[in-house]
Amino acid sequence: MRKISGIFVCAALALAGAQAARAQDYPTRPVRVVIAFPPGGPTDFVGRLVTDKMSAELGQRVYIENRAGAAGTVGADNVAKADPDGYSLFLTTSGAVTIAPHIQSVPYDPLRDFAPVALVTKVTEVLVVTPNLGIKTVKELIALAKEKPGAVSFASTGIGSPPHLAQELLDVSANVKFLHVPYRGAAPALTDLLGGQVQVLAADLPVLIAQIQAGALIPIGAAADKRDALLPDVPTLAEQGYPNTEASNWYALLAPAKTPPAVIAKLNKAVSDALNDPEVHDKLVKAGATPVGGTPESLGAFMKSEYEKWGKVVAERGIKDTP
Question: For the chain, what is the domain count?
Fold first, then answer.
């Protein structure tokens, strides 16, 4: 019996040694990063900017694979079921791992099936209107919505998206009811806002910044805990008298669970080095994304807190995956 136990111990030690050796050599081939949205969006922009620099840091090509569908859950499931060897990663937004699992059935556990690598960026959700609506503050918007309960159309980038949850939090804080109009992404929502089909839109700042700078959109409030550096004159919703309305989006790099810690450490360093690169940092900030970084452990704790926060909001507001 002791001999058999010894064999198992030796086998386990040999396996651990082999894994450590592979982690030490990692990466020896290209690394795939899945993004659960089509090319050209803000997540894609951030992903390509950061992975280009990661390629230089790791000495192997780090490339993007776009797998859109089902609020990010298609891409998430693909990586959750991939081999935990560091060659399949997931650049997620907050929706796929901390919001969608409360709204729809997903084929993965968002906290158990992924290994946190690094929090890449945070982006502010900004409320915007067109100049012809004739309002410049959230209080003016609330007054309009109270005059016409349920009639002021508030567009979002989809059910359960951070912009949608920003609207839900504002509903509660202001004791008002907007008409939620969910879209399949930011592009069609923005098009309809500019065309006058909807009256208000909340979206990631990188989606809106060009139209704001061109004067086609008026930013009236930020659903964030502080003002965005790119829009220092735009107050938060809380500053305007509507507390508990923080709904910032964020992008994080995840690996499949059981990915070796040494591989996670290499990837975390590559992300940190990319974010600290002056050119990458400057491009992210100018696009409206705030570089973050940090340890895998801090990301894990942050994801858990976000998961619990949004689970409570979804339950209290009765949010479902159909309008």
Answer: 2
Task: Provide the CATH number for the domain around residue 169.
Answer: 3.40.190.10
Nearest 5°: phi and psi at 61? -65, 130
Range of the domain at 289: 29-122+248-317
Q: Which residue has the tokens 């409360």?
A: 102
- For residues 116 and 98, the answer to whether their CB atoms sit within 8 Å is no
How far, rounded to the nearest angstrom, does the alpha carbon of residue 12 sit from its chain's CA centroid? 38
- Strands of the sheet containing 289-293, edge to edge, are 62-66, 31-35, 88-93, 249-256, 114-123, 289-293
pTM: 0.87
Distance CA 231, CA 229 (A): 5
Convert the pLDDT of each residue in 246-275 to its tens digit. Answer: 999 999 999 999 999 999 999 999 999 999
Determine the 3-state secondary structure of 132 from DSSP.
Answer: helix
Q: Output b/e per residue, 183-221; b: 16+ Cβ within 10 A.
A: bebbeebbebbeeeebbbbbbbbbbbbebbeeeebbbbb
Collapse the DSSP code of 176 into the 3-class scheme (helix H, G, I; strand E, B; otherwise coil) and give the result: coil
How many of the other CB atoms lie within 10 Å of CB of 55? 18
DSSP state of 236: B
> In 3-state terms, what secondary structure has residue 88?
strand
Mark whether 264 and 181 lie in a shared domain: no
Q: Are 202 and 126 in contact (CB under 8 A)?
A: yes
Residue-wise pLDDT tens digits, 155-170: 998 888 899 999 999 9
